[in-house]
Amino acid sequence: EVQLVESGGGLVQAGGSLRLSCAASGFTFDGYAIGWFRQAPGKEREGISCISRPDGTTYYADSVKGRFTISSDNAKNTVYLEMNSLKPEDTAVYYCAAPVTLVGDKILGDFGSWGQGTQVTVSS
After folding, report:
1. pLDDT for 68-115, tens place per residue?
2. Closest to 100 (Cα-Cα) out of 48, 62, 43
């Protein structure tokens, strides 16, 4: 059974940083792309970043480019999202999903497995 578990969310002041983790079991990342999504109250889910294994190709949505960094640790079967210079508009539930597909500038994960999400709240 594929299981993804996110962790690392929390409350942080604007300008602060958080690192989210997505640990996988029953699934090996190699050969697939893994994505991070977020959904704020009243807003549509947004695909913000993904990383392809094994080549490590990354993608970032414009809303997070230059502030967020996605990485992976194959030995731990874990993907990370380092979030810096956080803004109140980054407040959302963050999810990881795998596998995902990048089509143009849209990350698609409808047919993958999803974690339960982790709340990130950025105060002003």
Report:
1. 999 999 889 999 999 999 999 999 999 999 999 999 999 999 888 999
2. 48
- Tell me the three state secondary structure of residue 104: coil
Contact partners, residue 92, CB within 8 Å, separation at least 6: 38, 39, 40, 43, 46, 119, 120
Q: Are 43 and 59 in contact (CB under 8 A)?
A: no
Number of helical H runs and strand E runs in the chain = 0, 13
What are the pLDDT digits (tens) for 43-72? 999 999 999 988 899 999 999 999 999 999
* CA–CA gap between residue 111 and residue 100 (Å, rounded): 8
Contact between 22 and 35 (Cβ < 8 Å)? no
